[in-house]
Amino acid sequence: METEKKKTLVLGASTNPARYSFKASLDLQSHGHPTVLLSRKKGEINGVPLEPKARFFENIHTVTMYLGPSNQVEYYQYLIALEPKRVIFNPGSENPELCNLLEKNGIEWENACTLVLLSIGNY
User: What is the pLDDT along the chain (123 residues), one digit of tens a residue?
Assistant: First the structure.
């Protein structure tokens, strides 16, 4: 059973209930994980505002990725600067180039589904 609450940055958050990033944002909150939602769109998810710009957030444990590889490039240095413990590449966001960069900077990564990890207690 998970006990540690992991502050999570959802990169590519969406207010569209059909999107997996929306579902993951709600699931993270319901499991008690503080969330930061980064999106170019405006809005909120369950009272948490979407942040329009990549700015420094303290103590990010996990970044869960919901952007395709071509949309990740502008965030490479930002992710390194955040120094999260890990980055989760959800299906469709897998990016070997970014994974290599993360490894070189001592940041763990995994190709996984945040929703599945939460549902089985392995987040």
Answer: 456 899 999 999 999 999 999 999 999 999 999 999 999 999 999 999 999 999 999 999 999 999 999 999 999 999 999 999 999 999 999 999 999 999 999 999 999 999 999 999 999
110 strand-pairing partners: 88
Query: What string of DSSP letters covers 66-119?
Result: -S-HHHHGGGHHHHHHH--SEEEE-TT---HHHHHHHHHTT-EEEE--HHHHHH
Domains recognised in the chain with CATH numbers: 8-119 (3.40.50.720)
Q: At 14, give phi and psi (nearest 5°).
A: -140, 145
The whole-angstrom separation of Cα 42 and Cα 40 is 7
